[in-house]
Design brief:
Blueprint (H helix, E strand, L loop, with lengths): L1 H20 L9 H14 L11 H7 L22 H11 L4 H31 L1 H12 L2 H7 L5 H20 L3 H12 L1
Helix pairs in contact: 1-5, 1-6, 2-3, 2-4, 3-5, 5-6, 5-8, 8-9
Length: 193
């Protein structure tokens, strides 16, 4: 019982630190591109802005932006037709009068959830491999790691690659301990995302 409460408290601590720090962090240079790409993808299903990135982060970050019906439709934003992402993102964020802070918070929120999910997998793998005390130590280190907190609150591919890679390794480790199609499928799916 103590282990379960400790798990919940540490995951909530991680989540709370990430969420409450979002308003304190200005967008990074490339974050606007990721958010603009995400918005365009979920609003239109068109992949023209997905030139060098897989669509997972765009899908995750873009869905909450649907809660902002006041955003200009992507097809009406200058530079949509030629898929010039730099100017498209600049127009979406800064030149069309949209609430950039709200866009930033909504787009970052699913990435924070993904970071919290990664923390749960860190706990689970450590518990299976080394027991409950090791799991709490691993999650405690995770929950207060500055680099993980910093990247969890950003709309970039960094956290998604980390989470998917970790989950793929965990599933493959479980497969090696007890082969079955579900574990191999999870490893393949996570690696493919």
């Amino acid at each position: 019982v103590i282990g379960h409460w400790s798990l919940v408290i540490l995951l909530l601590a991680f989540f709370a630190q990430a969420v409450t720090s979002v308003p304190l962090k200005a967008p990074t240079f490339d974050e606007g591109f990721h958010i603009a790409r995400a918005y365009a993808y979920v609003r239109t299903g068109d992949l023209r802005m997905q030139q060098n990135h897989p669509p997972l982060v765009s899908l995750l970050a873009g869905v909450p932006l649907l809660l902002m019906p006041e955003l200009t439709p992507p097809e009406e934003i200058p530079r949509w037709d030629d898929a010039f992402l730099f100017h498209f993102a600049d127009n979406l964020f800064w030149r069309l009068g949209h609430d950039a802070d709200k866009m930033l918070f909504l787009a970052r929120f699913p990435i924070i959830l993904l970071g919290t999910l990664l923390g749960a997998f860190v706990y689970r793998w450590a518990r299976e491999a080394h027991g409950p005390l090791a799991a709490l130590l691993a999650l405690g280190l995770y929950a207060f790691a500055p680099n993980l907190l910093a990247h969890t609150r950003l709309v970039t591919t960094d956290l998604a690659v980390t989470a998917c890679g970790f989950i793929a390794l965990y599933a493959f480790w479980r497969y090696l301990r007890g082969p079955n199609a579900w574990r191999m499928g999870l490893a393949g799916l996570a690696l493919g995302l």
